[in-house]
Amino acid sequence: MELKDISQKEVFRYLGYKNNTVDETIQNIAIDCTTELLNNCRMNYTYKIFCCTVENGKIVIDNRIIIQSKNLSKNLAECNELILFAATLGIQADMLIQKYTHLDMSKAVVMQAAAAAIIEQYCDQCQYDIEQQLENKNLFLRPRFSPGYGDFDLKHQKDIIALLDCNRKIGLTLTDSLLLAPCKSVTAVMGISNQNRHCNKKGCEVCTKTNCTFRRG
């Protein structure tokens, strides 16, 4: 990934600016932070396809994982398969944020925001690559849906991490408090369908936490 691939508007959103004007100093710091992260991070991802059943707000994955979520069920409607997905910027992002926490707190805050924007863009890129592979088989991918969105319980991070063997494959683990480590990482579910059903809502748009500081809108 290159600097031009990262939306600075997203960096500013994570900083809480939303539609407010961003001064030139912050803009330059954001570019510096984004560049430093891109030059140092070792991004990686993994995914696997599983069979699933979806009925009455209940999703059963591979006949062993049960998820109760009306929001996720709606996203997976008419899907018999899904993808479990995980991606990370690697420990380097955590190290850079920690470094600037001691050296320059304001830059550390911008570094956090830049890292958040980068991991989301990286996930978009990974998802696009997966979509291209599936389209060759006349299959279509639904939007990413992560634990913590709507009523999709965060505890299911544990299931995704285990089923994908994330620790061994991409160095991604989970703390006892259900936080991903490295922290700039994502887990998600993506439905696979033989119908090209348009889903125009993802991320902030499907989440019911309307008071979130980082919400798009």
Question: Can you give a write-up of this model?
Answer:
This protein has about 220 residues and is α+β, with helices and mostly antiparallel strands. It has a single domain (about 5-195), classed as 3-Layer(aba) Sandwich (NADH Oxidase), CATH 3.40.109. Helix content is about 40%, strand content about 20%. The protein has seven helices and eight strands; from the N terminus they run ααβββαβααβααβββ. It has helices spanning about 10-15, 25-40, 70-75, 90-105, 105-135, 155-165, 165-170, and strands at about 45-55, 60, 65-70, 80-90, 140, 175, 180, 185-195. The protein has a six-stranded antiparallel beta sheet, sandwiched between helices. A hairpin with a 2-residue loop joins β1 and β2. The model has no long low-confidence stretch (mean pLDDT about 90).
Instruction: Specify the biggest β-sheet.
Output: 6 strands, antiparallel
Q: Name the quaternary structure.
A: single chain
Radius of gyration over C-alpha positions, nearest whole angstrom: 18 Å
Helix coverage percent of residues? 40-55%
**What share of residues are in beta strands?**
15-25%
Shape, principal axes of CA atoms: globular
Which regions are unreliable across 5 or more consecutive residues at pLDDT < 50? none
Q: Strand arrangement, largest sheet? A: 3-2-1-4-8-5
Q: Total helix count?
A: 7
CATH fold-level name: NADH Oxidase
The first-to-last residue Cα distance is 26 Å
Strand-and-helix sequence, N→C?
HHEEEHEHHEHHEEE
Q: Which class in CATH terms?
A: Alpha Beta
CATH architecture annotation name: 3-Layer(aba) Sandwich
Q: What structural category characterises the helix and strand content? A: alpha+beta
The counted number of beta strands is 8
